[in-house]
Hints:
By secondary structure, the protein is α/β, with parallel strands linked by helices. It has helices at 2-20, 95-102, 144-147, 167-171, and strands at residues 29-30, 36-37, 42-44, 47-49, 54-55, 61-67, 81-86, 93-94, 110-114, 117-119, 126-127, 132-139, 153-159. The protein has two domains: 25-86, no CATH class; 93-171, no CATH class. The protein is 21% helix and 30% strand.
Amino acid sequence: xxxxxxxxxxxxxxxxxxxxxxxxxxxxxxxxxxxxxxxxxxxxxxxxxxxxxxxxxxxxxxxxxxxxxxxxxxxxxxxxxxxxxxxxxxxxxxxxxxxxxxxxxxxxxxxxxxxxxxxxxxxxxxxxxxxxxxxxxxxxxxxxxxxxxxxxxxxxxxxxxxxxxxxxxxxxx
Length: 173
């Protein structure tokens, strides 16, 4: 009996760890016959997006649906996939498109500020044209030695989402 108790005491931490550890869900979620989604991802018109890098016009959103996989029946902590469908599926504008339209073929570095927030990583940032209210261009021709700043061009983008106090603006879409 003593060897059994000693073995049980030695193995108990491993048995209990297996009970509480939940592995990440790597299965795909079936949305339709031809479209499968990854749990925890967000999709705009069936294209995967990062929600913190996209700015959508709320009046152009047709519906937002969350799809759960088969794991939802097993445990409630499973992640779903979010599918956003727009009414008008017009192309999104990138910050590179805005830079090309506002540039005078200069080599001065650009900074993008959207709704008073500096965008450090501009890759993948996309906006609907309808959500843009105003674009201001501030060309800084000052000398680094005079003011302590490098010469930069700042593009200030004001969107319709700036004054909204809803959950969609917080995440960008």
